[in-house]
Write a structure and sequence with these properties.
Keywords: Transferase. This is Glycosyl transferase. GO terms for molecular function: transferase activity. The structure is a single chain. The protein is an alpha/beta fold. The protein contains 16 helices and 13 strands. The strands form three sheets. A nine-stranded mixed sheet has the order 1-2-12-7-10-6-3-4-5, with helices on both faces. Strands 8-9 form a two-stranded antiparallel sheet. A hairpin with a 2-residue loop joins strand 8 and strand 9. The longest helix has 28 residues. The chain is globular.
């Protein structure tokens, strides 16, 4: 049994009784007879050389209910792709790697761009979008999960808990978001979520007024988590950003397309640690600097689609409101850390808030200065309407890369 409450927006499965993973997997194997399951892993080649991904693969080897695993591989040349084929070859599931920088997929990508349908910039969102297209083309999965490839504390129970709500044929959930405590090595982590997204959503409520959309986003315990699962038909109709706004973009599309009764979040791990992004104060193209900029732009765009108009004065007011709320939260986080025997560097926390506040204004200027920007990758429904054979061609290209000569 799961102890859960309805928070007024989405169902939240929390404080889960930790059933043995074998018991969960036994049920999932039964569910898989009616609802085959797949997994998407968006990855940079560099993650194959890191400490986390090999251990993740060791765990996935033991997962009995997955029908397919689709790996999106970015920033890999030919030799690195061949290395990746060998790296993932021990997986017993039907496993395919999308060599996104390879000539076959690049040719399809260029054709999509010529029709105004491609992703204009590389990033995690673009990687996930192409993986989603392959899942649709393969037809092997009715439910699909997704998680990052840098999880240092990974165990297969995380995946089982993530998949359960969308895999159970008795349940009506189309999407499940994972969350977990952001604590590792005695420190309170999750800076972008704690110090930017939470106070930003509350500042937007103050500046723009109460909106169901903002209440909806604020109901997620960890809106930026890279772990979620969904029915495969969800992949056809959503438009997502190509950049770090992926998670916010996906949640926004689901709020537009689905009833809240079809959405849930679930506690998937007691401990979670992954590669931590640097703040990169001097480099707006990387780290938390770039991430916070992309997230702010994604929020502004979605609010604009709901009829909210912004001016330069609005963004200055938003920055000031956010800054005050964020500083108040730092005080609360400091007390929370102290009560739980954790460490928290208030100086670094305030430095991060100052950077995020500056980026809220910068994102606003970019939003106002580029009214014709195409911020979202088109849905696969639209792409198939314009190019009916594109998924079949993508499937063939991936098969040739994985089984033939490259």
């Amino acid at each position: 049994m799961s102890d859960f409450h309805q928070n007024g927006v989405i169902t939240d499965f929390h404080n889960l009784t930790r059933r043995p993973v074998e018991a969960l997997e036994q049920e999932l194997c039964q569910f898989a007879k009616r609802r085959p399951m797949g997994l998407i892993l968006p990855s940079l080649f560099s993650e194959l050389e890191g400490p986390a991904l090999s251990a993740i693969v060791d765990e996935l080897v033991k997962v009995p209910y997955l029908n397919e695993i689709v790996i999106g591989l970015d920033r890999a040349d030919r030799d690195q792709f061949l290395y990746a084929r060998e790296f993932f070859s021990r997986l017993p599931q039907h496993t395919r790697i999308l060599w996104n920088d390879g000539p076959r997929l690049r040719a399809i990508d260029q054709e999509l761009e010529s029709h105004g349908l491609g992703a204009l910039e590389p990033g995690k969102g673009r990687n996930v979008w192409y993986c989603a297209g392959y899942v649709l083309s393969s037809g092997r999965s009715s439910a699909v999960g997704l998680h990052d490839c840098d999880i240092l504390t990974y165990d297969r129970g995380l995946l089982a808990r993530l998949m359960y709500p969308v895999a159970n044929p008795r349940f009506n959930y189309s999407f499940c978001k994972g969350y977990y405590p952001r604590i590792a090595e005695g420190k309170l982590n999750g800076r972008v979520s704690r110090l930017m997204v939470t106070p930003l959503l509350r500042a937007l409520k103050t500046v723009c007024g109460p909106l169901p959309y903002l209440d909806y986003l604020d109901s997620f315990r960890y809106p930026l988590s890279g772990e979620f699962a969904m029915r495969s038909d969800v992949l056809e109709g959503i438009r997502i950003p190509a950049d770090w706004g992926l998670e916010i973009g996906v949640l926004s599309e689901l709020q537009r397309n689905y009833s809240h009764r079809q959405l849930c979040q679930v506690d998937i791990a007691d401990a979670y640690d992954h590669k931590h992004q640097p703040i990169s104060e001097e480099d707006a193209t990387g780290g938390l600097n770039r991430m916070s900029l992309d997230i702010a732009k994604a929020l502004y765009r979605k609010l604009a689609t709901q009829g909210i108009s912004f001016s330069s004065e609005d963004f200055r007011t938003l920055k000031a409101t956010y800054y005050r709320l964020a500083l108040d939260l730092i005080e609360a986080y400091d007390h929370d850390a102290t009560m739980n025997g954790l460490s928290l560097d208030r100086h670094c926390e305030e430095q991060a808030v100052e950077l995020f506040a500056s980026n809220l204004l910068e994102a606003g200027n970019l939003f106002l200065d580029n009214p014709r920007e195409r911020p979202f990758i088109p849905s696969w429904n639209r792409v198939q309407a314009a190019m009916p054979d594109v998924l079949a061609r993508m499937h063939e290209a991936v098969e040739l890369d994985n089984q033939g000569k490259v």
